[in-house]
Amino acid sequence: MMLFRSLAVGLLGACLVLLALRPEVSPRIEHERELVAVASNADVPTIIDVAPGTSTSQLAQLVRLAPGELVTAVDDQPVTGNLDADTVIAIARPTARSFIDLTIGRTAIGTQRRVLVLLH
Questions:
Q1: What pLDDT, on a 0 to 100 scale, did the predictor assign at position 96?
Q2: Which domain holds residue 106?
Q3: What are phi and psi of 54, to 5 degrees?
Q4: pLDDT class for 71, splitting at 50, 70, 90?
Q5: Region 1-26: what's the mean pLDDT?
Q6: Structure-derived torsion over alpha carbons of residues 52, 58, 63, 64, reported in degrees to the nearest 10
Q7: Fewer CB near the last or first residue (10 Å), C or N of the chain?
Q8: For residues 78 and 104, what is the distance between their CA atoms, to the nearest angstrom?
Q9: Which backbone phi and psi does 61 adopt, to 5 degrees?
Q10: Which pLDDT score is estimated for 31?
Q11: 26 located within any domain
């Protein structure tokens, strides 16, 4: 019994020492604009993680299209616009553990960006 108490007090003391000497952790939040500025030369896709069963209208809200942007391809299949993209995604009926690869074009600038939607 005395051995058990000594062991418990020793472990408690070690935990207190570790808590007192732990390094300070401060979370760092990086916004999408900062990430795009850092990786402006590379073609880095935006990754959106969603739950299965999310409707196509909810997916469209998560993608956050800027003014002048429209979906030009879904899974490398060209589409004519956002409405056509909704139709292609609805027909494909993405399931859990799958992904949707969107190519979004900016008509004013003539550039494209990729968005990868992961379904879990």
A1: 66
A2: 45-119
A3: -70, 135
A4: confident
A5: 89
A6: -160
A7: N
A8: 11
A9: -70, -35
A10: 57
A11: no
